[in-house]
Amino acid sequence: xxxxxxxxxxxxxxxxxxxxxxxxxxxxxxxxxxxxxxxxxxxxxxxxxxxxxxxxxxxxxxxxxxxxxxxxxxxxxxxxxxxxxxxxxxxxxxxxxxxxxxxxxxxxxxxxxxxxxxxxxxxxxxxxxxxxxxxxxxxxxxxxxxxxxxxxxxxxxxxxxxxxxxxxxxxxxxxxxxxxxxxxxxxxxxxxxxxxxxxxxxxxxxxxxxxxxxxxxxxxxxxxxxxxxxxxxxxxxxxxxxxxxxxxxxxxxxxxxxxxxxxxxxxxxxxxx
Length: 273
Prior knowledge:
The protein is an alpha+beta fold. It folds into 2 domains: 1-85, no CATH class; 96-226, Beta Polymerase, domain 2, CATH 3.30.460. Helix content is 16%, strand content 26%. The protein is built from 5 helices and 11 strands, in the order H-E-E-H-H-E-E-H-E-E-E-E-H-E-E-E. Strands 3-4-7-6-5 form a 5-stranded mixed β-sheet. Helix 5 links the parallel strand 8 (199-201) and strand 9 (224-226).
């Protein structure tokens, strides 16, 4: 193996989990850019107020992360951590602290406290994401709409995301909220569910305009929104098999003929071994 390729075996900590910060230096041997190395090495360090802790959610093999067809790029042994923004410590800055404080007060006396309902608050690239436990989504949505200090009158929709490698949280529903009362403030709420239990409560009773958005997310990703008045497909035919925007959905396609030759659909083409 050459010196500029990362070994497949990641260092492990005493708990047996991958220790991505151990043994990484600012050289080509790590397979990381200097910026990525700094993020990984800072993952276990003390976080200053207002800073976001990077979170390692997996590893990407090769240059582009392709898992089928064999490697033809010459980077097949490259192994890099997949980093996302983790929880942010207080103070958040901007209006984000005000929103968090108001939401914490609004949830007092309800079905769950702020600490029970909210898994994490992430401030990244000047945007606020509130990760909410799915069983408390409706209560949080109602507080965001009704509390005078919050007053997010509009939910602009819900989008689905599929992370097949994140065991236990493969499917995510992402909601975007807008407050006209408070000068067009915008926040994001994110909820996850496992592949084996693809259920998230519907918020149509709180935001009726989310009706078709939830139907589309069900249609494309297979997330079942419990309590939705009519959870049926909105884009694909009712008898369509599967959910087309999931990453494990077959590429499909039709063969293309030209000048006596035929190019088969993407999922039927040969693999390079």
